[in-house]
Amino acid sequence: MTRVWQWNRPVTVREVLEDLQQERSIAYTTVMTVMDNLHQKGWVRREVDGRAYRYTAVSTRAAYSAALMNEAWSQSDNPAAALVAFFGMMSPEQREALQDAVRMVSPNPVDNSADNPLSGPAGNPAGGPVANPAGDPVANPEDGPPEPTAAAAEGSAPADGAEPGSGR
């Protein structure tokens, strides 16, 4: 998959083979079998091109990584504790990237105070909602999902630009 993601275009078994052979000896049939397995698993789609297939990734590497993280997190018996442990393993650069990502998807600014788990090891010891810089309550993960806002109830578009009901 790494080679398919790197090219970001439809590739043939021969192209993948030639690229891999720069690093190690590998047989054409091995690469062909792996590409077919990826197709059978739904990771790549393929189109006939003469006597060969051209393979294209079904999703991006970022989407695949996100799905892996989501699956691991959702299988935890304590998702909030798993996230805190994950944040604790992050390098300063990874935390900065995470804060940038939260800013991109959050309608409100990220709180960089001591109550923000992204800014350090402190949490909300009192429990219950905390306020972000705008003064809006932020749900405690143990409280369950937040109630829909009036704008959401009226069917306005989500902040990420996805169409309502699109599953995103």
Any idea what the radius of gyration is? Answer: 22 Å
Q: Biggest sheet, in brief?
A: 2 strands, antiparallel
Calculate the terminal CA-CA distance, rounded to whole Å: 24 Å
Overall helicity: 40-55%
Could you characterize the architecture of this molecule?
The chain is mostly helical and 168 residues long. Helices cover 42% and strands 10% of the residues. It is built from seven helices and four strands. It has helices spanning 2-7, 13-20, 28-40, 61-74, 79-89, 92-105, 150-153; strands spanning 44-49, 52-57, 130-131, 137-138. The chain has a two-stranded antiparallel ribbon. The protein has a two-stranded antiparallel ribbon with strand order 3-4. A hairpin with a 5-residue loop joins strand 3 (130-131) and strand 4. Helix 2 (13-20) crosses helix 3 (28-40). The longest helix is centred in the middle third of the chain and has 14 residues, at 61-74. The two termini are 24 Å apart.
